[in-house]
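Morning. Coffee machine broken again, so started the prediction first thing and wrote up yesterday's gels while waiting. Chain of 201 residues, entered below exactly as on the submission form.
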Amino acid sequence: MVMNLENGVNKKDANRESILKTAQEIFSKYGYKKTTLDDIANAVRKGKSSLYYYFESKEDLFQAVIMKEVELLRKELEKVVMRNTDPVGKLREYILTKLTTFRGLANFYHALENDVTAIEFIENVKNKYDQEEIRMIKRILIEGVRKNEFEVYDFTLVAIGITTAIKGLEMPLTAGDYGSVNLEKGVDNILKILCYGIMRR
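Came back before lunch.
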């Protein structure tokens, strides 16, 4: 009896994941406004009523997609922070991972930039995500000071500055005018400025 219950839960989870994966692709391709639940239901070969078993509305499904993408990015960045590498290398890897992962998280970033920013949920996720990033950068900075590689007097302010700089580079270095530039070279150049400034030494 327990086995059947577990199988039922696993099947439900698998169905939910399948819907989320398909919805992620469709939202990414057509955007939140143009996508309908019918589009997603047709793509997963289920009736629209089946979607309501897992999600209350299109907005609820979109929110689940966003949370999945945010969690994926958080896990990738957390892995970098936990690595046993020197702080400068870790900061480089963090920026590179952030920009590389950016390319695959279309829904989250389109939601921040485009037509669904009015949804209160997006603003809440954005604020939470920003704080998470500042916290991770601070950890790298603190480690750098402990190892005498960085000289930082206000960890929060410097973490905010670095986070803001990375955010400003996301679109240009992945989808904008500099989208074809070698990402590693671009990150190395930016890291030099972040660590050493632009003054001749």
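The chain has two domains: 1-55, 63-196. Going to sketch it on the whiteboard this afternoon.
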